Amino acid sequence: MQIRDLPYPDPGRPDVRSGRHLLIWLGRNQLAGQIKATLWGLLHMAAVASFPIPVGLAVQAVVDRSGTRLALAGGLMALLGALSAFGDAMVHRAVVTNWITAAARIQQLLARKTAELGAALTQRVAAGEVVTVSTGDVEKISWFVEALSRFTAALLTTIGVCVALVVYQPALGGVVAMGVPALALAVLPLLPRATRRADEQREKAGRATELASDTVAGLRVLRGIGGEELFLTRYRRASQEVRVAAVRSARMWALIAAVQVVLPGLLLIGVVWYGAGLAHEGRIGVGELVTVYSAVTFLLFPLQQFEEIAQAYSFSRPSAQRAARVLALRRTEPAVGAEEAAGAWHGQPLGGDLYDPASGLAAPEGRLTAVVCGDPDAAGRLAERLGGHAAAEEPDTAGKEPSVLLGGVPLDEVPLAVARAAVLVQDKDPVLLSGSLAELLAVPCSGAVPVARALAAAQCADVLEALARSAPRSDGAPPDPMSATITERGRSLSGGQRQRLALARSLVTDPEVLVLDEPTSAVDSHTEARIAEGVRDLRSGRTTVVLTSSPLLLDRADRVVFVRDGRAVATGTHRELLGGAAGYRAVVTRQTEAEHQMAGPAPRCVPARDRPEGGTGDAAVRAERKPDPAREDSEQIEESA
Amino acid sequence: MIGVTPPAYDPAAPESATILPVGTPATVRGYVRVLLRRHRGAFWLLLAVNTGAVLASMVGPYLLGGLVQDVSSGAQELHVGRTVALFAVALAVQTVLVREVRLRGAVLGERMLADLREDFLVRSVGLPPGVLERAGTGDLLSRITTDIDRLSSAMREAVPQLSIGVVWVGLLLGALTVTAPELGLAVLIALPGLLIACRWYFRRAPGAYRSEAAGYAAVAAALTETVDAGRTIEAHRLGDRRVALSEQRIQEWVGWERYTLWLRTVLFPAVNGTYTVITGSVLMLGGVFVLEGWMTVGQLTTGALLAQMLVEPVGMILRWYDELQIAQVSLARLVGVREIEPDVGDGAVEPDGREVAADQVRFGYQAGSDVLHEVSLRVAPGTRVALVGPSGAGKSTLGRLLAGIYAPRTGEVTLGGARLAEMPAERVRRHVALVNQEHHVFTGSLRDNLLLARTTARDAELWSALAAVDADGWARGLDAGLDTEVGSGGLALTPAQAQQIALARLVLADPHTLVLDEATSLLDPRAARHLERSLARVLEGRTVVAIAHRLHTAHDADVIAVVADGRINELGSHAELVAADGAYAALWRSWQQ
């Protein structure tokens, strides 16, 4: 795999039985890359390892006063130099390629897994884990993948050098061959503790960063109320703790560095001691002594790879474990093989009345139905149910409640994508994805609702104005808000602006059924009234369900369903219910029942099904008002704006 | 493949203008100087132990050179014992000092890093509230997380390692010259090639690494967003697009990886070649010199071994210089916060009385487009004023001017006759507080979350503040009481509880005037009603300017100001405005159905 061909057309199916399996799977998938890297590594190290030979030859040539052999040594040196430089560049390219391809593959797998899990992921603890894998673990796993081939090459070279030394100069080489394994293994016992201290330090640093970002996130509160010094002191303490932990960790690494100096040093002393004697007796040449000395100095280099692979493995194992766990996640829902199970669905487009058997809520086709639900959490759950395929927190409670029916077809049993296309549920906290405004609104849609119309219905004029100010300017042309950038989660916009953009996005989609949960909770009353008009006009003839307690929205709905304790208890128009349904007024307006009793007659409970559509409401309340004040009001608002 | 051009798309290029300033090179240099001066003791200590360690490491080659000399000249007595003993002593010294170098390097690096992050936070919490309102906290947040992170390895390693490397190279070259001045010449031969290659590389590398890092961060960011927006993505069937986006990010990132790989493909052979040339020329030239009788074999051996030792420090310098270049950008972003003018508070301005007034105020966020046009409003002490009107009319802006967060462009906003704009934030907030939808719960104990409003408060005062906002019930139920850890990582408070904490802070801070920017609008109705009781108690006896999204808030106010298009169009009590039958009356009727 060349890195210019990334990303993979298909990242494959990972072996997620365990972290080790995942590592092996990754390795198998880049076997060619690993072999290539190992071979280049061998060339590079062999060339570097052979460097002492010309050095020794040169010294010996000078001692023997031979100019020819000196030149020969020089030639050999140039050749080895070229080989090592070339090998170094190639091995670097090969291992970095392994790193990148492994990292890209895991990131691609994560992206696919995340998209597959969708809403199911947000409800699980796993959401944080996915992010951890993507931001931290991928690098650690790839580090191991990268280090592996370098280690293999180092191991082979070390063995090769030891063997060569024994052959070249059995007496001196023997000393070295015996010493090297000790050198390789000496620091290993120190590594776990050093790694542990490094982890402690990282943890403390993470804590300090968290405190700092928490302080900055609440900075407006601090500047507005006070307490800066309190928080600075707290941060200073955390920051100093990081410093102490870091120095403590450095103490361990300093010790390791010292061990790495003293052990090879002792080996060198041994070589000098023994070798000098041999040379003095004339049993070896001076050049040979220099060669062995240089060879020992060289061995320090592959030995470092031993330490690295031990570290890389200890870091990457928990990371690989977590990655395997995340990649093994599945969407738990009753209808996994939904395509075959869809008994009632034969591929025809979905449509008709929406009916929820669990609550008795019915939303007739083509009408705007408002739902008032006393408990906001229950409203959220109800909205989710209406879309079908609810991502239940407890897998075993899913499927107990009967599925919502759209035109008589149980939504849980049609394929997820079909259900989502037919019914769009906009939850209480819709997320604006970062990108340009044009990208934000380029969602899969029917095409029947132009973007401009949706934006107008959602009263986004002031948002467009604000965005135009930040849009990139091309010469002469007026700034185009559609090319303005929306930052992550739309943080640069106010809560109300975000809400209206999200509404516009849902309107553009133009689904068969649109379910909106509290779409205007952060919008002021003036704007809310206009949005209510806009949505009603734009959605005329389409099925729309709005969960809300705002009178401005309720007043413009074709019918209102009052849900209490999970059951639809009353149905009618807003004004009918105001007069009739017990508890409705309390939820909708801020008046208490007692205040209402003073203002008008006692409320009558009106059972939902017994009531004729469009029947008279509470005459006493209506008598005080003009025939149709809602329409006039909105007209007046239009004029005043 | 000969040459790779940098990808056209640069993920490190700022998408929108950076809101807060970035430090100029002069500011950055100045700051680094200050930092080094503050820690010069640790710095010199590091250099001293490092010099010692390097000198000790050169003993080996000297001794071996001597031995070679003795053997080749056929000396009778080799003094191997003495040589080995010296070698051992040198090794012991080197071992101890190498450990010290690592340790002292970490101590210095960590101290500078701690200073840096603490300095930054000190500066950040001193920023004028107006700057924060306008810039938001996102930019600051990315500086304190990403940039501090990037600087960590640079400060922790690059500064000490670079100093070590430079000293090391200097000493080796010095020793080489002392051993055999002629060999110094051999090193010079290798220098030009290295300099040319480094120049080429360092011109391109820092920017490329920055883009590469930004590209990789974008890969993770795309995924994080997909996770975060799981529901929205599923509802809108955006899954495939998110996968495609992730792959596009990977492609962009990999493009930069490929480019930096090419840069190293050029640099590495050049550096490797330099080593070969140094060792080769030392041996060849030295060999010729020995043959000519200008120097001894011993000198040659020592020289060759010293020349070989150059590999490590040169590699070190190249590697950490790279890192330092990248870190410089982050440093500039951190230091940039220092360039923001602090509050220009006039110590002498003290309010006389409690009346808040705006007089013919004009204000705009951008030159040439005012948001408020000649707005005048007088708020008598103890009264409640509600600002109502459509989005974007200027209600919130007016509220912020009355709270002293922004200064008017023309006209004046006064508190007790004194201009708010001339008072430092610390004084303004003793009198006026802005309460908005943002009710941040800080990570830490419940006590810390309250103490910030009055740092000297005793527990009894904290409890009575909690009682005043109806929060003592659940707070007393907490296992650790005031010591309970709340906020992210601790106990998660409900939005209503968080709002109560915010209100309790107000009780403790006790300002006489409050500007409420729809403090309860994001809550669900039932919690809001509960909170309103708490809020009502907090508001008692104070002057209140409330920016109202919901009309019932306006209903209870003494005066209602209808703001539209940056002007106050209607002003009066609820009854007066309803009687006047204007826009307010219309809306009220519709809402009151």
How would you describe the overall organization of this protein?
The complex is a heterodimer of chains A (641) and B (593). Chain A has helices at residues 19-29, 31-50, 52-63, 67-117, 119-122, 126-168, 170-186, 191-217, 219-225, 228-280, 286-327, 338-341, 376-386, 416-422, 437-441, 451-457, 461-470, 495-509, 525-538, 551-554, 574-580, 584-588, 593-599, 619-623, 629-640; strands at 354-356, 361-363, 368-373, 405-406, 409-410, 423-426, 435-436, 485-486, 513-517, 543-547, 559-564, 567-572. With 641 residues, chain A is of the alpha/beta class. Chain A has three domains: 1-119 and 126-169 and 312-329, no CATH class; 170-283; 354-432 and 509-640, P-loop containing nucleotide triphosphate hydrolases (Rossmann fold, 3-Layer(aba) Sandwich). In chain A, α19 (525-538) links the parallel β9 (513-517) and β10 (543-547). In chain A, α2 runs parallel beside α6. Chain A is elongated. The two termini of chain A are 62 Å apart. Residues 334-342, 393-399 and 591-641 of chain A have low confidence and may be disordered. The radius of gyration of chain B is 35 Å and the shape is elongated. Chain B has three domains: 20-180 and 327-341, Up-down Bundle (ABC transporter transmembrane region fold), CATH 1.20.1560.10; 181-294; 356-591, Rossmann fold (3-Layer(aba) Sandwich). The N and C termini of chain B lie far apart (75 Å). With 593 residues, chain B is α/β, with parallel strands linked by helices. Chain B: Residues 44-325 form the ABC transmembrane type-1 domain. Chain B: InterPro entries: AAA+_ATPase, ABC1_TM_dom, ABC1_TM_sf, ABC_transporter-like_ATP-bd, P-loop_NTPase, Type_1_exporter. Chain B: This is ABC transporter ATP-binding protein. Chain B: One of its GO terms (cellular component) is plasma membrane. Chain B: It is a multi-pass membrane protein.
